[in-house]
Design brief:
Helix content is 54%, strand content 18%. It is an alpha/beta fold and 221 residues long. The strands form two sheets. It has a five-stranded mixed sheet with strand order 5-4-3-7-6. α1 runs antiparallel to α2 and α3 packs antiparallel against α4. The longest helix is centred in the first third of the chain and has 36 residues. The chain is elongated and about 75 Å long. 12% of the residues are buried.
């Protein structure tokens, strides 16, 4: 791109020399031509600068590897099913809704049209988000694992030392964590504290309610 711009810049300079010096023309015309040249030259310089920035950023990006996110087979299939639902069903529904709303007339005061367009934007954003998550996902099959320590995918039964309450969590990837379903991310404070521990070990975790101490009662798949 830079070579292309330099070629045309040089060609333009040579053409100007012929017009100005080989042919007689009024001083006012010469001045206008020179002003045009200065403007054109500044555009080419700016273009070269932008091309250089883009090229350097692209070179840096090529050396950056996509961060992989661990995910269970179940979690991967759930994200994949959501993506298919959005692309094959929800996307077409909202397109039809936009067409129907557009047929009602004036779009500036058409609430149905604007609501459908907003929903379309949300759907497309979610589709792009899911594509990125699935592309970066690293599926880890937990069914065949037999571990006596806490690793990704296992279930851990804990006892709160202070209250005696017992809870069970499964350690999963950040894209499938759901505390209501007993799934916590390995990157959460509790998940980080549990990784690598064994049955009988005690861990301390800082929570919004204060410091909590847990004992690991059982580890199972």
């Amino acid at each position: 791109h830079v070579t292309y711009c330099n070629f045309w810049q040089l060609t333009f300079v040579r053409l100007l020399k012929r017009i100005i010096w080989n042919y007689w023309c009024h001083d006012q015309i010469k001045g206008c031509i020179l002003l045009c040249f200065c403007y054109f030259s500044s555009l080419l310089t700016t273009s070269n600068t932008i091309a250089g920035v883009i090229s350097s950023r692209y070179d840096r990006m090529r050396g950056i590897q996509m961060e992989r996110n661990p995910i269970t087979r179940e979690g991967y299939e759930k994200l994949k099913a959501e993506l298919e639902q959005l692309e094959k069903v929800e996307r077409h529904k909202v397109i039809k809704a936009i067409e129907v709303a557009r047929a009602h007339g004036d779009l500036s005061e058409n609430a149905e049209y604007h609501a459908a367009k907003e929903k379309q934007g949300q759907i497309e954003a979610r589709i792009q988000y899911l594509h990125g998550k699935l592309a970066a996902a690293e599926i880890i099959d937990c069914k065949d694992q037999d571990s006596d320590r806490v690793i990704f995918g296992v279930h851990v039964k804990l006892e709160n030392i202070d209250t005696g309450d017992e809870v069970t969590y499964q350690l999963v990837g950040p894209d499938e964590s759901d505390i209501k379903q007993g799934k916590i991310s390995i990157r959460s404070p509790l998940g980080k504290a549990l990784l690598g521990k064994y049955e009988g070990d005690e861990i301390e975790v800082n929570t919004p309610a204060g410091l909590r101490t847990y004992e690991i009662l059982e580890i199972f798949v």
